[in-house]
UniProtKB/TrEMBL annotation:
Gene Ontology MF: a single term: calcium ion binding
Highest rank taxon of the organism: Eukaryota
GO (cellular component) term, any one: membrane
Signal peptide: none
Domain Cadherin: 23-131, 132-240
Protein's name according to its UniProt entry: Cadherin domain-containing protein
InterPro entries from the UniProt entry: Cadherin-like_dom, Cadherin-like_sf
GO biological process per UniProt: homophilic cell adhesion via plasma membrane adhesion molecules
Organism annotation: Biomphalaria glabrata
Listed PROSITE patterns: CADHERIN_2
UniProt keyword list: Calcium, Cell adhesion, Glycoprotein, Membrane, Transmembrane, Transmembrane helix
SMART domains: CA
Length: 272
């Protein structure tokens, strides 16, 4: 009997033996703090897709294991789209969130892999400068000043950028409300010191000082008050109320009787 070779096709079917695998154990994305709620922050299917060694890949889904107390969510489990659900605020101190994410086969969730998505919140210029205190006090004596000398309260006037990561340079100026009230009598230097251009009389002067960002003076500024107390100087002689006094007295007047009252005044208000 003659034997003939026989070829038989062998079809090897794929078995689901490999779990989907992330390409990295960690992904990261930077998100500005003023990002609108509902914005898409990261899409795993595009930015960090999982791979499956099985020739016939199974349908996979992405699941958020930790969501930072509901601040983030995956709104499309098959694409793995991470969405912002609550507002961000860099100044609150929450500048980084770590989200644990798993990718798993829809029909066999035990076939899974895990990764971490790090969301880094970046600061934006959305806050005004902040004074180290809202009111300052300065004491001067009355007199005439030429504007060449600078005066600073204690503690000195200082301010910082409310956006701590940006930390833009802050400079000072006289607020327009004070200029409208006192004209050119006062000026504030860029370092916050006060200059006086003219005569100061005893009393209290309320001076509004403006702190502003050097790169955005129109929209990023704050105002504090400098209370200037001007004291009187004893530089005037007493003045008699009359240049001449006269009086008459009866010879029968008793001892101790008031004959005449002489009065004088002092133009120095505090030291009269």
């Amino acid at each position: 009997m003659r034997k003939l070779p026989l070829s038989l096709p062998v079809i090897i079917s794929d078995v689901d033996e490999y779990a989907p695998t992330f390409t990295s154990a960690m992904f990261s994305v930077q998100v500005p703090e003023n990002t609108t709620v509902g914005s898409k922050l990261f899409t795993f299917a595009i930015d960090g897709p999982a791979t499956d060694k099985d020739r016939i890949s199974q349908l996979t889904q992405y699941v958020l294991i930790s969501d930072a107390n509901g601040r983030f969510a995956i709104n499309d489990q098959y694409q793995g789209i991470v969405e912002l659900k609550q507002p961000l605020d860099y100044e609150s101190g929450n500048t980084e969130f770590r989200l644990n994410v798993t990718v798993q086969e829809v029909n066999n969730v035990s076939m899974a892999d895990f990764t971490t998505l790090v969301i880094k919140v970046t600061d934006v210029d959305d806050l005004n400068p902040v004074f180290n205190q809202q009111a300052y006090t300065l004491q001067l004596q009355e007199g005439t000043f030429t504007g060449l000398e600078s005066f600073s309260p204690s503690p000195a006037i200082t301010a910082y950028d409310g956006d701590r990561a940006i930390n833009q340079t802050i400079v000072f100026a006289l607020d327009t409300s004070t200029k409208a009230l006192y004209g050119n009598l006062f000026d504030v230097a860029r370092n916050g010191s006060l200059r006086v251009n003219g005569a100061l009389k005893p009393g209290q002067y309320n001076i509004n000082v403006k702190a502003y960002q050097i790169d955005n003076p129109t929209f990023r500024y704050a105002v504090a008050i400098l209370v200037l107390n001007v004291s009187d100087v004893n530089n005037n002689k007493p003045v008699m109320n009359s240049a001449q006094y006269s009086a008459s007295v009866s010879e029968l007047a008793a001892i101790g009787t008031t004959i005449l009252t002489i009065a004088a005044s002092d133009l120095d208000e505090e030291k009269s």
